[in-house]
Amino acid sequence: MFLQFFGLKDNPFKLTFDVNSLFLGQHHEEALAHLRYAVAEGEGFTVITGLNGMGKSTVCRFFVESIKSGAAVAFLSSPIAGPTDLLQRMNRSFGIDAGAQTAHELTDALNRFLMRERVAGRKVLAFVDDAQILSPAVLEQIRLISNLETTRDKLIQIVLVGEPELVQLLNSHQLRQMGQRVSVRYEIGPLTLDETAAYIQHRLSVASTGAPVRFRRDAVRRIFRHTRGNPRRINIACSAMLAAAFKVRQKEMTGELAQDVIRDLRILEGRGAVTPILARWRTPATAVGCLLLLSGIAFFAFQPAPQRPPPEPVPSEFQAPAASAAEDPAPSAHRPPDAPTAESAPPVAITSAVAPTEPKPDLTAEVKKPAMTHSVQVGAYLYPENAQQVTAQLNAKGYPARIMKITDAGGRIWYTVRIGDHPSRQAAQAQADEYTRREQKQSVVRPFGVY
After folding, report:
1. pLDDT by residue (tens digit) across 215-256?
2. Is residue 303 one of the residues assigned to a domain?
3. I want to staple 165 with a disulfide (CB 3.0 to 4.6 A). Which of 82, 94, 132, 251 is the partner?
């Protein structure tokens, strides 16, 4: 009755993966491009991250569907009990004989399979979903699997999929060897308002037998504000709206209906209407304790401030010149309150991957600058606006970030974000390690002027 009332042949907002109803936003297109590049170039670890419900697994499964005819693919989901369980599940996914029991036997069987696939000219990929909850022992076993290689190429490429905490885990001291091998990384962000409207319309069009149900613009705006562009939450909200509309035999999704449904969803999520403060405390003891704490804060807050003598003047030779601080701000993981935001930062210039122009000769000294050989790269994007946004945020924090436009071997144009050029790989790695330590974000060292 529900589907028939709206002229639907299937639930347009079901949460299970369906390649026919797949909608790719800009971030999803970027993630697919990174996966294609990683597989084509035979890179090491690839990491795809994003908040819960952003479509990480959907993008990866769609990618697997597009290449499975020419590759052997294993798709593993957590939880994984331990290193041996990981090897057993990976071997079963590849169709390897499960007679082996020990980790050594399982690894040998996997290695033989990989060699056969390499001789046959097929790529082998392993996707590990929800990787942020894996134990360090399992992640270490994944690193050991990645060591299976010939003298020239890796025998298996591994893609780790997880929430943003995965990057912090790979940046930890315990897993630094694995984190340093991540060569391709991308974080999937939310849909925009226009993409949300297109997403809803696309799902309805695929599932409808005739003219699709109409979601008015004010309803879409309310859904977008509630879901913040998260596809999974959009599905939940739209499904709830269809159910509510069916109860009152209403075929058009209005802003008023969206408001009522979202209010109910917020209550279910524990984010309902504001209630008196004491009503949120479940026990009288908690309420009394919090009231005493608030009373103490109020007592001290209204005490007159003690009179203090004025500070001694600082001798002029110890005063830091303000001009130099403004000219050379030190990078920091926390932006000061008066620092410019990414929105207020000036437009970012995009440069091409060409050799730098010769600097003007220094008349005071005959010092020749060393040639730059390596750069620190913190992102690579197909859409220039994504690179500009990241660059503006880094510039606001004091990093000398810039965009370098580079064409890869497949003819694709990438907008890479780089924060420094160096005359040696060691110097570039030192800056990359410092950036990762400060920002808790991955960075890679790349040859100068090359993707």
Report:
1. 999 999 999 999 999 999 999 999 999 999 999 999 899 999
2. no
3. 132
